[in-house]
Amino acid sequence: MTNLNFNPQADVPDLSGRVFVITGGTSGIGKTTILRLAARNPAKIIFTGRSAARAQQVITEASALSPATKISFVPCDQADLESVKASGEEIIKLSGGRIDVLICNAAVFIPDAGVTKQGYEVAFGTNHLGSAAIVDVLFPTLMQTSTATESSDVRIVFVSSESLLTAPKEGIAFPLLKTDMASFACVASGLKRYSQSKLALRLYALEMAKRYPAVTSIAIHPGKIKTESVDTAPWWTKLFFAVSSDILTPDEGCYNTLWASTADREKCKLQGGWFSPVGIQGPEIPQEHLSLSEQLWTWTQTELKTHAFSGL
Prior knowledge:
oxidoreductase activity, Rossmann fold, eight-stranded mixed beta sheet, oxidoreductase, SDR_fam, single chain, 312 residues, NAD(P)-bd_dom_sf, alpha/beta, 11 helices, globular, NAD(P)-binding protein
């Protein structure tokens, strides 16, 4: 279900003074999110990505929309936890000790079977563990911002996907996460691995909300978006996009992220929520999958600590 009754120019409030961090901001909905945010005059936008050339183009376009906003790029390969840690530390320096909203957007879309630098299945290691790692590094600054004033409104937005509904039967195959899972599920193996990683993001947002209520944690489905990544996806994915009727442009694909990042927190009951575009509750997730949130949390903290992260 998609409801695009949302106008970024009218529905996103003035963002003066606020600091936004977004991962994976050099293309796709990451880029369009930055441009839409910049148009509402935040103090700073800090974004990550792998291409310095693309990043410069984003900075040029965003700065034209709001010359007073400080736009900064930090290189990061989210499939490498060492890179994530280094980029997080640089983000803290650039933030000046304030981060109002962290948008965990960076992801790989149905990649070929493989592992990250640290040996995790590539979709899970990049999409979930990489996101959890950047949260780990930035969390002290997020918490510091949340206690700065009574009106502080600090959020973490996890860009998940309704593809989590096609996750494997067990939800998350924990024993296989340190393999390439090449033969996992046999049919549509790549989609299953991707869906598993997106389920993890939704579960992580849920567990974050339970454990740290001072920070609003939200998971969203951005919609079915025709981005550049679709061009290199498997043939059956291209066919799906070709026959679907509710495909969004990259600009429309950022609307739900914008809503989750800026909508009135008291009116919208955002904490721990899971939303389809724009601001619609759901879709419903099987209870047996939701029940994995605590196990995922424990697994994630254990793995992060193994790689010299603090853990939450």
